Structures are given as structure tokens and as C-alpha cells.
Amino acid sequence: MEGKPTASMEDYLESIIMLRQGKEAVRVSQMSKALGVKMPSVTGALKKLSDEGLVEHQRYGRVQLTPEGEKVARDVFRRHEALRRFLEEILSVDAETAADDACKMEHVISPLTQKRLAKFIDFVLSRPKVQPYWLKMFERYVNYGELPEGCPEKCFEE
Question: Which of 49, 71, 84, 134 suits a disulfide with 155, CB 3.0-4.6 Å?
Fold first, then answer.
């Protein structure tokens, strides 16, 4: 591949990995529906992705990721999931908004920030039955607009 894929190219690659669900390939019609674009747009994008060596696609056939396409798609998916989880599970953004925002943000986040964000989420949520006190206080602040008395100092004492 000659350069970094565009945000649009990344979206197409990510859709393939999300749609195939254990299968090797997906159909253009599936991608069209999932991305909310017309089939000729998908076909045009697949031509570009094929020229870049990221997908294999014959006219009217199924779409498969090449090893390089698989690598790029998995990277985009990891960025998306880290951002979605942060927005949804830490900031309590509703699921639909979190998914939409993650899709927009995934194209500009650096690999370092994405890795740190994923580790932060895992760390904060490592005790699934126990929400950290400071996260509970943040939720309260979001819902009621008032900092709990003594925060932030007392919020971090557990």
C-alpha cells in the first residue's frame, strides 16, 4: 500500500471485518446496507482498495481482505472499540451516540493514544462488580451538575 488509507477506506475495511462474522468474505450488498451507501459506491471503493492490495474482489463476487487489508481492518476495529468502550462505559454516553462518535474519532487517534485508552479502560473496569468511587461520583456530576462535596480530593480516596 502506498500511503495511509483514507477515513473512507478504513470504514469500508472495518465494515468487512464486522460483517463477515467468522466467514472469509462478504457481499457488496451487505456492505452497502451496513454503510448506508449505494452499491455502485461500494464497488468503486472496492476497486480502489483492490488497487491498493487491501481486498480481493471480482465483479459480482464476494469481498475478501488480503493479509495487509486484514491488518489495517483489525487496527481500525481496535481503535473503534477502545473509543466506543470509553465513551459508553466510562463517560456513559448512550450506545448509538458512542458508536457514531467512535466511528468519527477512530480515524484521527494516534496508535499511542489508542493503546493507552484501551489500557485505561481495562484498568478502570478490571473489577466488573465494583465501580470505582470516583467513576460513581463522575456519573453523579454528569446527571446532577454538581460536584460532590470534597471532590476531587475525596473522590480518589477509596
Answer: 134
